[in-house]
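I hope you will forgive my troubling you with a question about protein structure. The full record is reproduced below for your convenience:

——
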Amino acid sequence: MVKSLCEVVVTFIALLFSIVLSSASLAWGFSQSGFSSFSTFFLLLGIGWFFSIWQEWQWYASFTLFVFVSAAALGLWFGFTPGWMFAGGIFVLLAWEMSNFRHRLRLISNDKDLRGIERRHLLRVSLLVFVGLLLSNIAMFFVRASFTFEWGMLLLVITLLGLGQLPFWLRK
């Protein structure tokens, strides 16, 4: 019971949020550049990822990682809004890692400290996401100085989620 509760609550929520943020970021970035059909495609891939979690298709996370990172790279190549391309790439990496981490949690025996393992892993991954977003902001500022309202709102949401996790990390 503890194993399934530990796995489902925090890692599953992080996985769902990262899928939504990655597909929405790429969809918004491509939509702003006039490619609304690609936006629909990314949203459908995100919905497909939810379905693959339910069906326990392990391969779908790697497939979506390849498609999203390739699309983000092409979007940067063609001069789309870099913030959304960076966010899509960063959050798809987070979603892929959370998907693989959920699978690895299932293989760990019940006598291990699953909550501690999960907490430390999420702390490390959250710090990596923060550093990735920080570096992408620095790159956007110095390359194009393109900081839009929508990008600011995304950063605000991510900051609030990180600050919401802080009391739980400090308490333990």
Remarks:
- The two ends are 21 Å apart (CA to CA).
- The chain has a mean pLDDT of 80.
- The chain has one domain: 2-171.
- Residues 2-32 form the longest helix (31 residues).
